[in-house]
Amino acid sequence: MGKTETLKEQVKNNNDLAFDENQSDWLKQKKRNKLFNWKKNSPINLKEQIFKIVLTGILLGLSVALSLIEIKIPIVGAHVPLRIFDILIMAIAIPIIKLWYTLIIAILEPWLHFAIDSDHPPIQMFFDNIANIIFVVSFVIVFYQLFKNKTNKYCKTNNNYHESIIRHTFAGLILIPLNAIVASFSFIITVVILANSNLSGVDEYLAEIAAFYQNGVTLFFILLAIELARFLFIYLLFALVQKRLARLNRF
Q1: For residue 82, which of 210, 183, 215 has the smallest C-alpha distance?
Q2: CB 140 within 8 A of CB 100
């Protein structure tokens, strides 16, 4: 009788152990699939994709139209063109049409702007293109991934308003200086290339580039301060409308 009970207990323990191992393997597989779910071929919702394509076209047109609003900042004989609202449209587009469609806007917008306003040399549009891509990708990584559902580490309150403020603050401390540095280097590289080459462009614009180039690298810090103010303003505008876009957030 005692041996039978012992045998039953051993069988039960073996079954429990096998169940625990299977459950552990299932949880690991589920976690692995969650991390790499981009490899799966998810079914395509045709209506949703058409809707996003239409929205992409609308947002692209709006971004190009607003890019024509330039604020020219005079710096030692040169006028640095700053555009604000086209970048803001890209930030707003991310939760609506997701990353890949927003990247389409980031890539096409500078060249469509160039097609309308050809005062800028093509090399500047190329580096604006790169700066736009870095802005969109960094925004997705920092705002929608790095600080997603992680505000409890810095704030123990259950107040969503306080958590939102902390999330915006920490994300902004990364995004604002990062993109300001990228935009500043983008302009400086454009200046260096134009000042040391025979690339074509508008004579007045190239004269301003030469004036900027001749005044030394120290002007980079002036430009950086201006870019910091620019992206701070863009980020504050985005923060004002982000709450209304929260229901469209797919990240």
Answers
A1: 183
A2: no
Q: Which residues contact 153 (CB under 8 A, 6 or more apart)?
A: none
* Amino acid making up residue 214: Q
3-state SS assignment for residue 215: coil
In this structure, what token pair is assigned to residue 96? 């609506």
Biggest CA pair distance of the chain: 104
| CA geometry: angle 207, 209, 211, nearest 5 deg | 70
Q: What is the DSSP secondary structure assignment for residue 142, as one 8-state letter?
A: I
Distances from the Cα of 5 to the Cαs of 17, 19, 69, in angstroms?
18, 21, 85
pLDDT in tens, 20-45: 555 555 555 544 444 344 444 556 67
How far apart (Å, rounded) are the C-alpha atoms in residues 56 and 214?
A: 41
- CB–CB of 208/191 below 8 Å? no
Tokens of 233: 């303003």
Residue 93's Cβ-count burial label (10 Å; 0-12, 13-18, 19+) is buried
| 3-state DSSP assignment of residue 82 | strand
Contact 222, 75 (CB under 8 A): yes
pLDDT in tens, 126-175: 999 999 999 999 999 998 888 875 444 434 444 566 777 888 888 999 99
Q: Would you say residue 107 has pLDDT above 90?
A: yes
Residue type, 58: I
Cα 203 to Cα 6, 95, 116, 124, 125: the distances in Å are 96, 41, 18, 15, 17
| Residue appearing with tokens 């063109």 | 81
Q: Give the whole-angstrom CA distance, residue 176 versus residue 40.
A: 34
pTM of the model as a whole: 0.72
